[in-house]
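1st attempt posting a full record on here, be nice pls
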Amino acid sequence: MRFILLFCTLSILFNCEDKQKQQKTTTQTPEIEQKEADIKPKVTPNNVKRKFPKLNDKNAMEFFLQYEKENKEDKVRITTDFGEIDILLFDKTKFHRANFIFLTKQKYFENTQFYRVIDNFIVQAGNSDDRATARKRAKIGKYLLPTDTKRGYTHERGVISMPSSEIDNPHKLASPFEFFIVQQQGGANFLDGDYTIFGKVTRGMDVIDKIAAVDTDEADWPLQNIFIRKVEIIE
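the predicted structure (as tokens):
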């Protein structure tokens, strides 16, 4: 009888000790996981380092001066709802070439539109009434580019040029997010000296002609939106 009581007592003690060990193990595990979680860096949009500074009128020129030295690409393909347009960017207008390559690599132009179309004159693109475009601009920064009009280029048919900003802008500083392509037969030389020509169409003027022929409203905006689906660098 004593042996049975002693055995029961020992069993109870061992069972209690096992439960205490299990409880300790159970309570310690979350603490360890929490400490490990604290060690791991939290990746949030706020602490992801930008690959480029937010651009403004004070730092843009210095940024593009360095950027154009390290990014020598000069050929791009614009894919639109009407087909593809290949463009050669001019090395002489280095800031404007670098700006276009930079925006291409940031995928800025994707889903922007041809928002001003005048048949036998120009088609203008790079803007949109979509809020996503405004957000992309805000992320890149707010800046203008100086005109660079004394490189010997004229506004002949097929050249790509940069319009001036709509803000109070007596020096016609260029709006870096937008561009226009001269579609007019015989060119539009009266634009020379006011706007910077920084490239030319090498393939796809038939696409430009199709875009120029669409119906537009009183503000020259196509009645049916014409999107830029992609701009990519090509060899």
